[in-house]
Amino acid sequence: MGSLTKLVDILNRHAPGNGAYDTPIPGVKLLRSNSPTMPMPVVYEPTLCLIAQGRKRVMLGTTTYVYDPARYLVASVDLPVTGTVIEASEAAPYLCLVVDLDLAELSDLCLRYPVQDQNDDVPSAGIALNDTTPEVLDAAVRLAALLDTPRDIDALAPLMIREILYRLLMDPGNGILRQMAAADSRLNQIAKAIAWLRGHYSKNCRIEEIADVAGMSRSAFYAHFKAVTSMSPLDFRSQLRLQEARRLMVAESMDAAGAGFRVGYESPSQFSRDYARMFGDPPAKDASRLRRMAQASAARP
Fold first, then answer.
1. Residue 255 CB contacts under 8 Å (≥ 6 apart), including other chains
2. Is the CB of residue 94 less than 8 Å from the CB of residue 33?
3. Alpha-carbon distance 237 to 241, whole Å?
4. pLDDT, position 301
């Protein structure tokens, strides 16, 4: 049995139905979908996404990323994206192993295994795709296999996660990970601004204020922020607002006007226009559709 076949078998057994599954391994979860999905806005935190079966498309701003078992995705900072499973079926479901990127481990590995000629002044996108090497895949299979022997997790999972991070760092295409681990890197300056925006998305603020959080000039901040996120700081804030408004309407049954006001919109008409532009339908119609889908899913045996 090849490594990829082993990974499919393990994920199939430990993620038996559609959805996301937390695992006993800290920082590791499994994703499954038995069919293609509608575009779904989510926030990617720093993670490795390794697909065992199927294919997924992710939109970050205006940039599209498509990955599958041959290519893995790395997200380096918190990013609002729209994800769509584009290849999946009952016979061959979409299966994905997600591993959180541990900054402390990355920093230690970078110090132990430095590289030359790293240019941190070149803006890097916050998402990267790279070829899934046999070494990365083999380490991922051994990590996932611990789900079959839970008594071994405490002793062995940290070692296997560290090996995966090492394999990623040694890939020349993953300079983004070394930027994550460098406290004074441009990427980490942008990460500080993103964290601030996630905590203050409902606040009206000027770009200069966000640039101050990053410790950069307005022009440098704008250029690096757009390189990392594929959108302007204000567009980024709008996506955070709209995603939270959608959650409030679906999960907490808040009306559209209340949700728009809660996330920082002063104009209901502007909120409705921005919402329809992002999600395809006006707020109330979209939220009603999602609640019906959730109820139908919950009613299935």
1. 249, 284
2. yes
3. 6
4. 47
State the SS3 of the chain.
Answer: CCHHHHHHHHHHHHCCCCEEEECCCCCEEEEEECCCCCCEEEEECCEEEEEEECEEEEEECCEEEEEECCEEEEECCCEEEEEEEEECCCCCCEEEEEEECCHHHHHHHHHHCCCCCCCCCCCCCCEEEEECCHHHHHHHHHHHHHHHCHHHHHHHHHHHHHHHHHHHHCCHHHHHHHHHHCCCCHHHHHHHHHHHHHHCCCCCCCHHHHHHHHCCCHHHHHHHHHHHHCCCHHHHHHHHHHHHHHHHHHHCCCCHHHHHHHCCCCCHHHHHHHHHHHHCCCHHHHHHHHHHHHHHHHHCC
Show the CA angle centred on residue 157, arms to residues 155 and 163, nearest 5°: 120
pLDDT digits (tens, 9 = 90+) for 218-230: 999 999 999 999 9
Going along the chain from its start, the domains and CATH numbers come out as 3-181 (2.60.120), 235-299 (1.10.10.60)
Rounded to 5°, angle at Cα 234 from 230 and 236 = 45
In this predicted structure, what is the pLDDT of residue 61?
85
Question: What backbone torsions phi and psi does residue 3 show, to the nearest 5 degrees?
Answer: -60, -45
Q: Per-residue pLDDT tens for 114-136?
A: 876 555 555 578 899 999 999 99
